[in-house]
Write a structure and sequence with these properties.
Helix 1 (about 5-25) runs antiparallel to helix 2 (about 30-45) and helix 2 (about 30-45) packs across helix 3. The chain has one domain (about 5-245): 3-Layer(aba) Sandwich (Glycerol-3-phosphate (1)-acyltransferase). It is globular and about 55 Å long. The chain contains nine helices and eight strands. Helix content is about 45%, strand content about 15%. The longest helix is centred in the first third of the chain and has 21 residues, at about 5-25. Strands 1, 2, 3, 4, 5, 6, 7 and 8 form an eight-stranded mixed sheet that branches. It has about 240 residues and is an alpha/beta fold.
């Protein structure tokens, strides 16, 4: 398939997402919303020629779950959505990305300004409200992306909320595999790379695979009595999941 045809199909898929988000999602049940978001995300990954391999299974319990993951790419969110859609906490810059920022906002993303301590506290309160409303929520404790070869230290800023509401945490780990014959994956979104540069790099790359490993749900208060201890325990669990791939 030519690059032009791939781009046209991707644009068509994004247009369907905009129309569905604007005209259908506001009137859907929660179960139907999840189904639509999961299907759209899976199709997006097919357009990017990214295959998802899942280790483990989404918990049978009713939740809600606070999912935590290492962070490598803007694609991470869609990989997770393809398995089980959750609302996300994301950096405020994402809100201004063309189309994808709007889609994120319309599907319930909480946007965090990392330079504002006051907003961090407000996001913490919003996280508790989301979980108390019964919605699953996800965030990336590294607070930035890595090249995928290691997991950066977990920040503690957003970990007080799960302790306060005794949230059930679901640690997961992601790993993108380099295509055969290549030294590295095209998916890490690092440094001064723009969203457009990243997308072009991905579209030019050969078919790839990402592995998503799901851990065991645990109460936040069982993992730590304070934010620092919780961050260390979550980091250890995530590292073990990554090493098991």
């Amino acid at each position: 398939m030519s690059m032009l045809l791939r781009i046209l199909r991707l644009l068509g898929h994004i247009l369907r997402a905009v129309l569905t988000t604007a005209l259908v999602l506001p009137w859907c049940s929660q179960a139907r919303r999840r189904q639509l978001i999961s299907h759209w995300s899976s199709t997006l990954l097919r357009h990017l020629r990214l295959t998802v391999q899942v280790q483990g299974a989404w918990p049978d319990g009713p939740g809600p779950y606070l999912l935590t993951s290492n962070h490598i790419s803007w694609v991470d969110i869609f990989v997770i959505h393809s398995v089980h859609p959750v609302r996300f906490v994301s950096k405020s810059e994402v809100r201004h990305w063309p189309v994808f920022g709007w889609l994120a906002a319309q599907t319930g993303t909480l946007f965090l300004s990392r330079s504002s301590r006051r907003q961090t506290l407000e996001i913490g309160k919003a996280m508790i409200q989301v979980l108390q409303a019964g919605d699953d929520l996800g965030f990336f404790p590294e607070s930035t992306t890595s090249d995928g070869t290691t997991i950066l230290p977990f920040k503690t800023a957003l970990l007080q909320s799960p302790l306060d509401c005794q949230a059930t945490l679901l640690p997961v780990a992601l790993r993108y595999s380099a295509p055969q014959g290549h030294d590295e994956s095209a998916y890490p979104f690092i440094g001064n790379m723009t969203f457009t540069e990243s997308l072009v790099r991905i579209l030019k790359s050969p078919p790839s695979q990402v592995t998503l490993s799901l851990g065991t749900p645990q109460r936040a208060t069982e993992l730590g009595t304070d934010r620092r201890q919780l961050a260390l325990q979550l980091h250890t669990l995530t590292q073990r999941l990554r090493e098991s791939m």
